[in-house]
Design goal:
Layout (H helix, E strand, L loop, with lengths): L1 H16 L7 E2 L5 E2 L8 E3 L6 H4 L3 E7 L4 H17 L4 E7 L9 H11 L5 E3 L4 H5 L7 E5 L4 E7 L4 H13 L2
Length: 175
C-alpha cells in the first residue's frame, strides 16, 4: 500500500514540475493583449497612463511592493533598463500592489520611490484591479509588451536579467 501511495505522490510531483506555470521565466509567453491599468488609486511620476496611449512603444510592467526583499533586489535592474532604453522607446511602468496593510498609504509608496531612486511612472494598485487584470500572483513580476500592445514575455521573481534585457533589445529593434 505504501508503495502505491509513494508512486502516486511521485507522479503528482513530476506532473507539477512539468506544468507550464512551474517555470519562473516564460520567454515566449502566450501572446495576449496587455490589460489596461484599471482601479489605480494614484499615479506617481506621471499623469495616468493607458495601454492604448502606450501603443507603438515597448512597455515593461513591473509588479512590486516596497516591503518585498525580492522586489528590492530587482529594482536596480529595472532602473538601469529605464535609464538605458527610455530614449529608444522603452516605457517602464511600476505597479505597486501592496502585500501588507501598511503598504496601502501613498506616503509610504512615495517614500520608497525616493529611497530607491525610482523615476519611472508608478501606479498604486491598492485594490489589486490591475494585478487581477494581468492574472498576476507574484512579487516581483515583469511583463514585456510589444509595440502592438501584446504581452510577449513574463518573468516572476529575481534573476534572468540577461534574458529579460535581451528581450527588451529585441522588441526595441523590431519596427
Amino acid at each position: 500500500m505504501w508503495k502505491t501511495i509513494i508512486a502516486a505522490l511521485c507522479l503528482c510531483l513530476a506532473g507539477a514540475a512539468c506544468s507550464p506555470g512551474a517555470n519562473a521565466t516564460q520567454a515566449q509567453a502566450q501572446t495576449v493583449s496587455a490589460p489596461e491599468f484599471v482601479g489605480i488609486d494614484r499615479w506617481f511620476n506621471s499623469a495616468p497612463l493607458t495601454m492604448a496611449g502606450l501603443k507603438g512603444q515597448v512597455v515593461l510592467v513591473e509588479f512590486w511592493t516596497y516591503s518585498c526583499i525580492n522586489c528590492i533586489h530587482v529594482l536596480p535592474h529595472v532602473k538601469q533598463w529605464h535609464q538605458r532604453y527610455r530614449d529608444q522607446g522603452l516605457v517602464v511602468v511600476g505597479v505597486h500592489t501592496p502585500e501588507y496593510d501598511e503598504e496601502h498609504g501613498a506616503a509610504g509608496v512615495q517614500a520608497a520611490m525616493k529611497r530607491y531612486g525610482i523615476e519611472y511612472p508608478v501606479a498604486q494598485d491598492n485594490g489589486y484591479a490591475t494585478w487581477n487584470a494581468y492574472g498576476n500572483r507574484f512579487w516581483p513580476a515583469l511583463y514585456l509588451i510589444d509595440r502592438e500592445g501584446r504581452v510577449v514575455y513574463r518573468h516572476y521573481g529575481e534573476g534572468a536579467y540577461e534574458a529579460t534585457e535581451a528581450r527588451i533589445r529585441q522588441l526595441l529593434a523590431a519596427r
